[in-house]
Every structure is written in structure tokens, then in C-alpha cells.
Amino acid sequence: MQKVAIIGAGRVGETTAQILAEQEICREVVLFDIREDVPQGAALDIFQTAPFFAFDTRVIGSNDPAAMQDAEVVVITAGVPRKPGMSRSDVLDTNVKVIDTIVSDLVRYAPEAIVIVVSNPVDVLTYRVWQQTGWPRQRVLGQAGVLDASRMAAFIAMETGFSARDITTIVLGGHGDSMVPVPRFCTVNGVPVSHFIDAQRLDEIVQRTRGGGAEILALRKNSSAYDAPGASVAAMVDAISHHRNRLLPCVAILDGEYGEQGIAMGVPCLLSRDGMKRIVDLGLNDAETAMFRQSAASVRADIQRMKAP
Predict the structure, then answer these.
(1) Which of 53, 176, 239, 264 could bridge 271 with an S-S bond, Cβ 3.0-4.6 Å?
(2) Mean per-residue pLDDT for 51-56?
(3) Average pLDDT, whole number, for the chain?
């Protein structure tokens, strides 16, 4: 892949750019931000690590949206972050306005791009980008499930002492308190996680996963998470850039999958050259389906609020 543009040079955007450059996932990373000199400073700082990490990816900062011209992937991290005690939905009204401004530039300068939305509430804003661009749903994705699954995997590694590399988890639904971690599909190198962790403790891990972002926000106090989110975005971009056909939980526009339509939700997506190749339906049991429906209701309520005058 030649070019990835990141809209928003805050901590998540900067971390994403650093990882993309270090791993040489693309030839050029452009950081765009409306704050004067901020993206230029971040880009210069990142590129000065090239001698240490031995990468040739060019990192450029700009205040001109035209810098995203012909980007193959555009990552949207711009918007106001939530503060301690706030839910992701609390920043909706402000961030919808930010997204609408970005979309006009996106359509103008990168009309063929695949979009990955990171800004919160990510499910609702992914839906907004899809709605405003009119692009095929294959090209409009949100980052959430990759992050939530990595948090759950980390908690399982902490609990069991096993290598985090061997742990595979799946988290569905909205990116919030109603997200749906699915322990039935979680394994340690192919062995069901229930073989190592009893039901009560596993339920505690599920609850901790749901509050994973809030936990970090409460501990940091002056910042939400940015390292794991940046790594999660980079994993999605890597899957697209290298046509890996990776199955990753992402926010996608549903068109009948999981019994839902006209909504953006976290589901297992096959990512490759053209974005979302297909959605995999896991065949949820009754309890899992009920949780997914509850999560969908929460996301749908925010979508309706967004549409309200």
C-alpha cells in the first residue's frame, strides 16, 4: 500500500502513525489535524525514530485536507475524547459535527479510500460516515472489536499466565457497556478458555472487558487509552494492505446479518484488499442473541438521537 491518511493527530492518531511506520505497512503516512503545526510536529518526531527502527515509510504532517489526496485508507480519529465518568455516547453530538466536516473532505480528496472510523461513539459514527458518503459498506469500517478482543485476551493472559500470543477472543456488538464478549469462541491455542478458567471468574473477565476503556481512563485521569487502540487500527490496516484475509471483529454495516439491518455493529469481518470482504455469522445461542439484541437497541437509540433535529 502506498498511502494511509490519519485524520486527527492526537494520541491515538500519533500512535497509529508510529506503528504503521515502524512496521512499514505502507510507503507514506499523512497525519492531518486542524491544529496549526501539531501534525507537523508529530510527524517529524515519528520520522526521527526511523534510524532506530530501520524503516523507510515517510511520515508527513499537514493542516491541509488536500494532503489526504489519493489515500488508499483513511483513518478517522478526530473528535473530542470522553472524560472520566462520561460514556462514549456523551460525546456524540459534538463528534457528529466533526465527522460531517471530515466526510466532505474525504469524498473530495480520497473518493476511492477504505475508511476506518475510531472516533467515539464508533458504531454510530461509522454508520454516519456510510450514510453521508453513500459508499459501499465494504469500504466503511469501524475499529472496536479488535481492541475489545485484545483487552479480553490480555485479561485472560493475566489470569492464566499463558502467552498472550496463543489467546484468541471474540467480542461482538456495540463498543460500550453493552458489548458482547463471547467466551464460547475464546481459546488458548485451540483449547476452549473454559478449560482453564471457571465460569464465575470468566464472567468477571467479561465484565472487565466491557469496562476496559473506562478502567484505563480512570487510571490515567487525563487521557483515554491510545496504545492498544493504535495497535488495533494498525492490525486492520495491515490486513487490508497485505490482502491477508484476516478474520477480525470490526464495526460493519449490517444488511441482515445477525438478524439486524440498517445499523453498524461489531461482527467478525474478513478483511482484505477491498476492505470488508464478508461478514461471518457465528450462529449465536439464545443467551448470546439476547445480549446482541440489547446491544443493538443501544446503538440504534444513538442513531435515532443523531437523526433528531
Answers:
(1) 239
(2) 98
(3) 94
Residue 308 has pLDDT above 60, yes or no: no
Is pTM, for the whole model, over 0.90?
Answer: yes
Of the listed 175, 195, 242, 243, which one is catalytic?
Answer: 175
Whether 175 is a known active-site residue: answer yes
In CATH, what is the architecture of 145-307?
A: Alpha-Beta Complex (3.90)
Q: How far apart are CA 139 and CA 206, in angstroms?
A: 30
* 3-142 maps to CATH 3.30.930.10: no
